[in-house]
Design the sequence.
């Protein structure tokens, strides 16, 4: 039996099972570094050399995602979070590749030093990508800046089609863009184009001047003078002084037109001109223009509207006095013009009063002539002005008295005695061929009559022989004379009036009395 067992054992041997994977290679640090470096390229090439296809695919996916995020190049660059996560992924892939490559043989190349050299060479791929991306990003930034420049140009072009006050905010926005390009992006293509754009800016904003709209040109030209302060680092050259002469011309021309048209704003224009450009040719023309305006107003005093001319002269006098002529050296000349205007206004008051009287504005004529007499007692026209004031006051009660302008004539051949049957001191005014006034003292023993008494048949004031009526006798020519009398204190609602047609050979008596509630009367 022992022999048979031996034979069976010799013929029935067992084959050991095959291993599931090749035995690990001996640890090789150079190989581990080579796989790690190859994975840093972002293409997973380290995994490809050790035949790890799934991790390699993950590298391709991660790189593809980064490219989708990064391209096309944006001026802001790759989002920081995406870049941070990708770098972490590459480091993780490099670390994992080093672990795998430490004991895994390379499929190709067979030697680790060659693989490491290949990895170092392939690092140029991401490095080159970074360089290319930076270049693309720089171009994107340039294009963005050019777009900003174009937007600013469009604002300026649109503003040129609108009134300045409407477009000013757009002009300021455009200036902000130009300034930022010059200060923050001085080396960009857009920044290099700003000086040319500024020429367009100035001509567009100042366009009203070129059209001859001098008043409209003042605000934009004033605005342009502030531009150099808002554009640091920009060589504006002649543009810095471009608005000056144009603004001086606009201020003068606009003020001259307003002065001729009687607008009050001319003083502001001339004031700004004399203060801002005191030594300019335009400032030198201010005083002659003012003197010419005074002369024109003086001429108008002799025209159809003398009162308007007188008012104009008075206004001119005060306006001229307010002009700041110190810096331009014309203070004395302006003061002379102001005195001339006021003097002409004062003397023209008489002409104004005559015109008011002729136009039937008797209340205004009375006021004007009264003021003239008070201010010009020695004037050659004062005597007649006083008579016109009397006639104008009478005409307010008896309009027919104002049909003819009074004269300085006095006296006549007819005696007229005026008595005062009133407890009030009265002023008697008369006009006709002769004009004058006088005052009668109050009648101490007289009384105010009731209305019923004055309506009673046979009512005859100033007929009481026992009373000593205050009276005055005047000599008047033949013709119609209008009388008005009123209490001297002026406390009367209705002055008394009488129209007397005087004829030769008669002696006339006028009687003044007071009626309760109605004022004075005469008979």
Sequence:
């Amino acid at each position: 039996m022992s022999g048979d067992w031996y034979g069976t054992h010799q013929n029935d041997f067992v084959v050991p099972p095959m291993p599931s994977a090749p035995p690990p290679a001996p640890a090789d640090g150079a190989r581990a570094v080579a796989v790690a470096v190859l994975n840093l390229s972002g293409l997973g090439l380290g995994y490809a050399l050790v035949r790890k296809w799934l991790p390699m695919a993950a590298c391709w996916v991660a790189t593809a995602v980064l490219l989708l995020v990064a391209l096309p190049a944006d001026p802001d660059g790759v989002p920081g979070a995406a870049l941070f996560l990708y770098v972490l992924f590459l480091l993780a892939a490099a670390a994992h590749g080093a672990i795998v490559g430490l004991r895994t043989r390379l499929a190709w190349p067979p030697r680790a030093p060659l693989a490491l050299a290949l990895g170092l060479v392939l690092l140029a791929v991401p490095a080159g990508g970074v360089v290319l991306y930076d270049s693309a990003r720089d171009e994107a930034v340039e294009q963005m800046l050019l777009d900003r420049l174009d937007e600013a140009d469009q604002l300026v072009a649109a503003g040129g089609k609108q009134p300045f006050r409407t477009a000013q905010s757009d002009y300021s926005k455009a200036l902000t863009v130009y300034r930022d390009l010059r200060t923050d992006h001085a080396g960009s293509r857009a920044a290099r184009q700003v000086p040319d754009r500024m020429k367009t800016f100035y001509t567009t904003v100042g366009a009203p001047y070129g059209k001859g709209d001098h008043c409209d040109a003042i605000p934009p030209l004033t605005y342009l003078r502030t531009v150099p302060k808002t554009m640091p680092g920009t060589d504006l050259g002649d543009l810095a002084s471009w608005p000056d002469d144009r603004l001086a011309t606009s201020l003068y021309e606009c003020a001259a037109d307003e002065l001729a048209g009687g607008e009050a704003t001319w003083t502001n224009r001339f004031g700004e001109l004399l203060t801002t450009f005191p030594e300019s040719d335009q400032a030198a023309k201010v005083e002659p223009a003012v003197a010419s305006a005074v002369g024109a107003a003086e001429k108008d005093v002799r025209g159809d509207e003398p009162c308007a001319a007188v008012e104009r002269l008075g206004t001119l006098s005060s306006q001229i006095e307010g002009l700041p002529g110190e810096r331009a050296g014309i203070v004395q000349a302006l003061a002379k013009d102001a005195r001339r205007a006021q003097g002409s206004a004062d003397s023209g008051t008489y002409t104004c009063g005559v015109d008011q009287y002729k136009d039937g504005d008797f209340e205004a004529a009375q006021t004007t002539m009264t003021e003239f007499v008070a201010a010009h007692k020695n004037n050659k026209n004062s005597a007649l002005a006083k008579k016109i004031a009397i006639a104008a006051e009478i005409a307010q009660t008896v309009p027919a008295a104002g049909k003819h302008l009074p004269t300085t004539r006095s006296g006549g051949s007819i005696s007229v005695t005026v008595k005062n049957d009133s407890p009030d001191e009265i002023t008697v005014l008369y006009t006709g061929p002769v004009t004058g006034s006088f005052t009668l003292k109050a009648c101490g023993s007289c009384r105010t009559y009731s209305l019923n008494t004055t309506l009673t048949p046979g009512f005859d004031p100033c007929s009481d022989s026992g009373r000593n009526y205050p009276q005055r006798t005047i000599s008047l020519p033949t013709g119609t004379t209008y009388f008005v009398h009123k209490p001297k204190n002026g406390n009367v609602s209705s002055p008394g009036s009488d129209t007397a047609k005087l004829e030769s050979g008669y002696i006339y008596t006028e009687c003044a009395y007071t009626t309760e509630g109605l004022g004075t009367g005469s008979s």
Q: What stands out?
A: The mean pLDDT is 83. The beta strands are 414-421, 426-431, 436-440, 471-476, 479-487, 496-502, 508-515, 519-522. Residues 9 and 177 are 99 Å apart (CA to CA). The longest strand covers residues 479-487.
